[in-house]
Write the structure tokens for this entry.
Amino acid sequence: MAQRRIELPQGTLDLLILRTLALEPQHGWAISERMQQISSDVLLVQQGSLYPALHRLERRGWIKAKWGTSENNRRAKYYQLTKTGRKQLELEKDSWHKLTAAIAQILETA
Amino acid sequence: MFSDLFYRLRAFLRREAMESEADAELRFHFERQVEKHLKTGMTREEAVRRARIEFGGHEQLKEEIRDARGVNLVETLFQDIRYGLRILARTPVISCVAVLSLALGIGANTAIFSLIDTVMLRMLPVQKPEELTQVRMRDPRSPNEEPEGTFTNPLWEALRDRQDFYSGIFAWSWAQFDLSQGGAVHDAKGMFTSGDYFSTLGIRPAAGRLLTADDDKRGCPAVAVLSYGFWQEHFGGAPSAVGGTLSLDNHTFGVIGVSAPGFFGLDVGNKFDVAIPVCAAQIFDGPRTRLDRRSWWWLNVAGRTKPGVGAEELKTRLGVVSPQIFAAALPADWEAKDQQGFLRRTFEPSPVATGTSYLRKQFRQPLHVLMGVVGLVLLIACANIASLMLARASARHREIAVRKALGASRARLIRQLLTECVLLSTAGALLGFFFARWGSSLLVRYISTGDNKVFLDLSFDWRVLSFTAGIGVFTGLLFGVLPAFRSTRVSLTSAMKGSQAVDAESRTKFRPGKWIVASQVALSLVLLVASGLFLRSLVKLVTLDVGFDRNNVLIVRANLHNAKVPPEQQPAMFDEIESRLHALPGVVSASRSVMTPVSNYIWNNFLDVDTPNAPTGDAALAFFNFISPRYLETVRTPLLAGRNFNDGDSKTAQRVAVVNETLARRFFPNGDALGKYFRVHPDPGKPALPIQIVGLAKDAKYASLREEAHATAYFPIAQMPEDAEEQVFELRTSARPSALISSVQEAVAGVSKAVPLEFHTLAEQVDDSLVQERLLATLSTFFGGLALVLAMIGLYGALSYLVSQRQPEFGIRMALGAPRGSILRLVMRDVAVVLAGGLAAGTCLAMATVGVLQKMLFGLAPHDTFTFVAATSVLAAVAILAGYLPARRAMRIDPMAALRYE
């Protein structure tokens, strides 16, 4: 039986992007590959929807973009976390932990 | 926040580059994904297909990215504007009509508002105008009247020297000066100013120096300050004008300076040409100067409050100093009773930051009425454009459905439609602004009369500009919102099917159109009723029997004082001039007098008669004129009984009078006035000679056409108690009066070359007294007509649209055998319903509002039946005509063509 894939809850895409970029600057395709791999293909992310999110984060000043050369020697747009983005990541990670903990608690005890 | 804005801005400015970057980025991702799939051994085709599914729609993504970047808001606005302009250009006639009617409406509103602004709202262009207060006098005997603002010179001097709460206090008075030295009069507007006038107001000189306290001392030299405008006009702005001289009423004044541009004086509607010190009045008056006269009221007084003195404190302190000041300036020759009243008066401050103005009193109501009128016109214009928009939106039904089907949101479509409306109203406001500039200066010229040139500084200030911008946006939304909301409520299926004609929907679709047209009819009726009332008032005034014949009378005002003729020679010289004028060819009859009918001058006093129950108080007041024997004949006031004056009625003979019917009736109710005697209430210390009534004249208007006839007495000019150094000649001419001006000048020059003359016609003089009435009648008729035309365009447009919508239905009806007449009836029934509703609402609205016009009407009540009936009939007739044209088109539909179209 094929593994069932889960759609991303609203608003969590930003968090995942920030987390992925926390390791090193990446271009869009690599981010999507990385997220797929790490989540062991559980999460279903429409690859295209990554890009509006990237531009939105850039507008907010959490990440910045730079054109560079990719591993296969082509021009690609690399994204990297800014200082405020790093802070934002901590913030969001924190509230995510709180949220999941709270929900888990309700599910366990109720 | 700032970086966000910066990002959006960069995104907008570099949108081409960012667009291609986004494209490259997406393509890179897509190709990488394809490569990945190829590596797993898929065929190229299969790999591309997979990648595409995983990736999602390319164009859709780009739109989402644009949204994320935040450029969409700005970009779509430009898009909307571009698109809106294209749409508007597609129907140039409709767009032009819309812009033009809006421009007329907005222009008229701006013009009237700018007048209200300049006359009533604007601050004076002086230093800190809010600190200025005018000093007025309250008479405890008439507490409800507006306090009097004119002072005598002794009173002004007493106030000036006995106060310590004004940091600067000054007096001023307007005068007319003749710049010529004999011959035709060349008027200049003069202003007497006390020493601290310019310094208190903080006015700077543009050249030379201004008047100071040192210039305003008894026996001062004749010096003058020019206004900037007069300096430019009269001297071409030459620096040599300062230090030169100027002749004012034949007295030479030295020019010491020019005041700063933009300063016109404190009275809105007036501008001064020449300012001279108050003390210079003595130069004109001679030994019995008004500077010492305690009953010559001619000065206005205002001051700048000392810092720290509040409004309440100022009022108290003015009240405290009042008794001693009035005591110091008490007129010694008054009766004891009047002196008591004088001493009880108190000073009161009144704010003067916006200046003073007689225009305010005269035109406040008319301007407000006109503001209401043009407001209604603008509403009607808006209604028109709303129905145009509605019709056009329905015609774009399919376009809107297609855009909606392609995924445009309703909010987006409404925004697009509103943008079009705001474009229209912006164009209308811009054009209207130019109309307003032109219109307001036209209005000012219209309310100026020969004797009284109105000057207003019409430069538009921020208040007018924001008013125009405000109504521009407001109207755009007003006529845009309803159509935008209605037309975006489309059902996709019915629109796509392309059948929108035969369904019952089309009839309901017309409903808002009907409402709009009906309200236009109602508003137009209100305007037509108002203009009808004003027109009828004016006609009544113009055709009134005034008791004299105003046509073909030339009035020549001659001043022998300014000609420096010694007083004892004046009567003989006036006689000589009169007989020469009488002998001029083209003159039917010439006479002279002290007053002319409906001029700005009055002379009245109380009469005493010895009959029982003689009138007292105001009823005993009579209006006087002193006339030469040919006067009544020249102005054609009929002598009803008794005799006219003749040369025997000399200064030494028995005093005689000709009285009018009203005087005879009031003082001698038994009808036996002829031969009776009366006395004029004497000046203190002078004898009151008995005056015998020798003639009875028909009633004639004295000061205004609106008045009830005054009791009037005519006396022989030879028997005047004191000499009038200025007298007026009346010439009844056989041809156009103004054609005689040069021969009159020659004839007078034959007697003396130094006599300044001023020319009017009696007809002009009467016309000038009707400025307010004529203004209201002309403008309300113009706007009433405009409203009528707009409403009819609205009705015609709405019906044409209805007919085109129902064309297939009419075709079917005819194909099924309906006679053509029934189609006509069908359409006309709609017209009748709309018209009846509109007229009924309009009549109610007019009945409720015309009451405010009461005071401005003459000879008829606001609820004048004739006017209401006439206005209703005109409106109904024009509406039926406007409705008949499209109805006839409906009747002539070829059923086959109509059905084939379907």
